[in-house]
Amino acid sequence: MEKSHSEENSAREEKTSAPERELAESQPQPDGWVSGKVLAILIVSYVLLIILGGVIFHFIETSPEQETVVASTQRISTFLNNNTCVTAEELKLLIEEVINAYELGITASNNTESHDSNWDFVSSIFFATTIVTTIGYGNISPATPGGRVFTVFFALVGIPLFLVTSGQLGMRMASLFGKISNKLLKKVKTEKWKSILSLVLVFTIGFLLFSLLPAIIFTYAEGWNYYVAVYYTFITLTTIGFGDYYPEFANGRSGESAEGIFYRLFVNLWVIFGLVWMASTLSAISDAVSNVVPKKKNNVAVNKEKASPEDDEFKRESTDL
Question: CA–CA distance from 209 to each of 164, 212, 219, 222 (Å)?
Fold first, then answer.
């Protein structure tokens, strides 16, 4: 009797554990969840892309860098030969001072009156904009402990607020662009092609409004050539923000003049609305690519349909126990 009772209990445990195992294996996954195989392919693709990019940058940039090293070394040697009263150590200290000043956003000069402050009111507002938008050009940064501490707390408050605000602006901008594309593409019948053409149209209109046209203004205001200005708009609006180019209103114009203030205001508004457009566009492209990637199916409903009456009976018995 004891043997038969133990066998009955073990059989019941095996039968009750089977549905539990199936239920554990079929827990619902978040929307857009891909299979492990697809995730591995994505990770490998990302790593290969990074390696490929690094190799290309290496071959493109190494030679000009070496040429700059050779040219600067020759220039220093020539200077020391022509100015024997200056020692190599004195020149090294001078160069270090110039570099330190440049890292603080100051162009070293023997005339202090020719220097426009990086921390005038308008420039400080633009710097605050680069913080909350996470652009961070790096051309200027707080040099005092108080400024660095305030930057941390300012970013903690400003970045989330900008994300919420830009998200709302993005929805309205997407709605506006959607209405425009629907009017222009109303003759397109296939939804798939309509979606693709709409994405291309939104990107084209936005690229014209936030990159190609502003680049003309930057060419005039900063003295850049046009391709550099377009490059700057892309690096800024994607928040890459290398800092190799940044608005400083060159060509002898003061940032505190009426023209300079208007220009800074334009740049601030361009950054905000341009970032909203770029974020919406990149999100749409990401969604389009994600739709191509096969998703992991949720098998909970299927498993429930496959559950046998015996499984239900054992579930009820285990609940009663």
Answer: 23, 7, 15, 19
Alpha helices by DSSP H, listed for the chain, are 2-25, 36-82, 88-103, 121-132, 145-184, 191-207, 213-222, 226-237, 258-292, 300-306, 309-320
Q: For residues 114 and 83, what is the distance between their CA atoms, to the nearest angstrom?
A: 27
Residues 6+ apart with CB under 8 A from 151: 131, 142
Residues 6 or more apart whose CB falls under 8 angstroms from that of 196 comprise 288
pTM of the full predicted structure? 0.69
C-beta of residue 274 within 8 angstroms of C-beta of residue 233: yes
In sequence order, which residues have a C-beta less than 8 Å from that of residue 83 and are 6 or more positions away? Answer: none
pLDDT digits (tens, 9 = 90+) for 226-275: 999 999 999 999 988 888 888 875 544 445 677 777 888 899 899 999 99
Per DSSP, 204 falls in state H
Distance CA 168, CA 170 (A): 5
